[in-house]
Design goal:
Elements lengths: L15 H11 L7 H33 L6 H50 L2 H5 L3 H42 L1 H7 L3 H38 L1 H6 L3 H29 L1 H25 L4 H43 L20 E9 L5 E10 L4 E5 L6 H8 L7 E6 L2 E2 L5 H7 E4 L8 E2 H6 L7 H10 L3 H4 L9 E2 L8 H13 L5 E5 L7 H15 L3 E5 L11 E6 L2 E6 L1 H7 L2 H18 L1
Helix pairs in contact: 1-11, 2-3, 2-5, 2-11, 3-5, 5-6, 5-7, 5-11, 7-9, 7-11, 9-10, 10-11, 15-17, 17-18
GO cellular component, one term: plasma membrane
GO molecular function: ABC-type oligopeptide transporter activity; ATP binding; ATP hydrolysis activity
Pfam family, one: ABC_membrane
């Protein structure tokens, strides 16, 4: 399931200090677009000032002209024009403010998503061994999308705070005694906000985890659909999905309840109490003397302008918490240091003869249990060394550390008598051709899958590579031939055809070292005969390390290494090992017996 499998103990309230650290770090992503954000904030300040000025315009007109009976048509038109003009300016400024902010916000999210995707591709294989596909997909899609809403929340917070400050300032200038009564509501708001923050951060953490589990369940179901249907597991998978989905619903519903209680209803209640209190205060003043009607109008308008942003703030607290949790999860991936092994990177070092040597190599995936123990062997230039053994014997682990997917703990691996750690990773990737047991095909065309988007490879080279491994025999029969469309994961192609294309994509780069990881395991006998000649030609002039599933395919290997429990227990040529009468001989006889029985059926 997920990386660091999530359980209920991980659903915790995130302290404000930790939230502020997360906020500070995630804000660094806006740096490339700081000018647009700054311009948008400047316009927000302008709007806050205009909002504070407008009620005073009406108050002045009421008290200085209407109440005194000196209002004229021209006066009314003038005040109306001023108020309308400010409203029109607000509309125009709001457009530019939203345009600038949303453009910068979208670019920032694009930047975050690109960096996150790039980071995932820099992480080592150990990360993917411990992390589900759904977990990763959630980080790159759902969490970055939540972050987009987060920027809008920050804008609303800035708008609301500026509106509150300018409005309260305007109230102080109008009547400071009545204004101070408004401050009595602040402690209540602080208590409500604090309670909401503690509760919601824990609940949002749980919601995000359940969402990851949903994505994981969905990814596993889609990828494993043939197995699910073959073994009639549809009902079980549906029930499991419904359980996770119901758990996710309960988390969402819990958040909905707290939002319904603590957000807008609280603010609306406080707003109503504030209006009643202000009218009561002015009513009391009216008993002592006259009270200007315009002042009452202005104050009630200011109270509305004071509580309206608070309503927006409280409504946005849920999105703020969502954004903080998503930001934290994104930063967790950014902080992950499960990288591929690091190279010393001697830039001018090149692979020439392609001699491979393992010297007392010990390797463990978890730094506790050794899967390879003191492995030593040499593959001379142009030779083929085959690795055989039962499942778990360490064959694939040798391939993994030679390909630099994992770091080995002890010993040395040399290529041309130089440590493998000294070669630039690009040199290793160019000169080591890897053909896996399970070939993967990307969406695109046959050409795309052979070229793998390397534009330096010409169409002629693609055709020659396909002919070399005899993949051209089925490609030429396809509609569109080399431009034939390939759908996701190569659906519509047989395992043998996909493997042939994998051979072609490897050989087109002309690597000096060839690694075959049970390359013929998924190929039918007829196809195996077809490509065996191509494999032999691929090995000519190349140093080859082959994991053998069918022992008959490596009879001509220069050396065969038999592995058991991470150790080399036998080594020699096919003939030498048969004469030895040990494990290899037993494996070979068992396979021949199996083939003989199969042919008699």
């Amino acid at each position: 399931m997920e990386n660091n499998v999530e359980d209920e103990s991980q659903y915790r309230s995130i302290p404000i200090k930790e939230q502020m650290v997360t906020l500070k770090r995630i804000l660094k992503f806006i740096k490339p677009y700081i000018k647009q954000f700054a311009a948008a904030i400047f316009l927000v300040i302008f709007l806050a000032v205009v909002n504070a000025v407008q009620p005073r315009i009406i108050q002045t007109f009421i008290d200085d002209y209407l109440a005194t009976g000196t209002a004229t048509r021209s006066t009314a038109v003038m005040f109306g024009a001023i108020y309308f003009g400010l409203t029109l300016v607000k509309a125009i400024v709001t457009f530019f403010e939203l345009y600038l902010f949303n453009t910068a916000s979208e670019k920032t999210i694009q930047n975050v998503r690109n960096q996150l995707f790039a980071k995932v591709h820099r992480l080592g294989m150990k990360f993917f061994d411990n992390t589900s596909t759904g977990w990763i997909v959630t980080r790159v899609t759902n969490d970055t999308e939540a972050l987009k809403d987060f920027w809008n929340v920050l804008l609303n917070i800035v708008q609301s705070l500026l509106s509150i400050l300018t409005t309260f300032g305007a109230m102080l200038l109008l009547d400071w005694k009545v204004s101070l009564w408004i401050l009595a509501f602040v402690p209540i708001l602080i208590v409500v906000t604090r309670f909401y923050q503690v509760y919601s951060s824990k609940t949002y953490s749980e919601m995000k985890s359940k969402n990851s589990m949903l994505n994981t369940q969905l990814a596993e179901s889609i990828n494993g659909m043939p197995i699910i249907q073959q073994f009639r597991q549809e009902k079980r998978m549906i029930n499991e999905f419904e359980e996770v989905n119901d758990s996710y619903f309960q988390s969402n519903f819990s958040m909905t309840r707290i939002n319904a209680i603590l957000l807008s209803p609280i603010i609306n209640l406080l707003y109503t109490i504030a209006i009643v209190a202000i009218l009561g205060l002015f009513g009391y003043d009216a008993l002592q003397g006259s009270v200007e009607i315009g002042v009452i109008y202005a104050f009630t308008s200011y109270v509305n302008l004071f509580f309206q942003p608070l309503t927006r703030l409280m409504d946005n607290l849920s999105l703020f918490q969502d954004g903080v949790i998503s930001s934290s999860r994104i930063l967790n991936v950014m902080d992950d240091e499960t990288y591929n092994p690091q190279q010393e990177d001697t830039q001018d070092l090149k692979i020439s003869d392609a001699k491979i040597e393992f010297k007392d190599v010990t390797f463990s995936y978890d730094d506790e249990h050794d899967v390879l123990k003191n492995i030593s062997f040499i593959v001379n230039p142009g030779e083929t060394v085959a690795l055989v053994g039962h499942t778990g014997s360490g064959k694939s682990s040798i391939i993994n550390i030679l390909s630099r997917f994992y770091e080995f703990q002890e010993g040395e691996i040399l290529i041309d008598d130089q440590s493998i750690k000294k070669y630039p990773m690009e040199e290793l990737r160019n000169e080591i051709g890897l053909v896996l047991q399970d070939s993967f095909m990307f969406y695109g065309t046959i050409k795309d899958n052979i070229r793998l988007l390397d534009d330096s490879i010409t169409d002629e080279e693609i055709i020659r590579a396909a002919q070399f491994v005899q993949a051209d025999r089925f490609i030429e029969k396809l509609p569109g031939k080399y431009d034939h469309k390939v759908v996701e994961r190569g659906a519509g192609f047989s395992s043998g055809e996909k493997q042939l294309l994998s051979f072609a994509s490897t050989i087109v780069k002309d690597p000096k070292i060839l690694i075959l990881d049970e390359a013929t395991a998924n190929i039918d006998t007829e196809t195996e005969v077809l490509i065996q000649e191509g494999l032999n030609r691929m090995r000519e002039g190349r140093t080859t390390l082959a994991i053998a599933h069918r022992l008959s395919t490596i009879r001509d290997a220069d050396q065969i290494l038999v592995l058991e429990d991470g150790e080399i227990v036998e080594r020699g040529t096919h003939e030498e090992l048969i004469k030895l009468g040990g494990r290899y001989s037993e494996m070979y006889e068992l396979q021949n017996l199996g083939y003989t029985r199969s042919s008699h059926k």
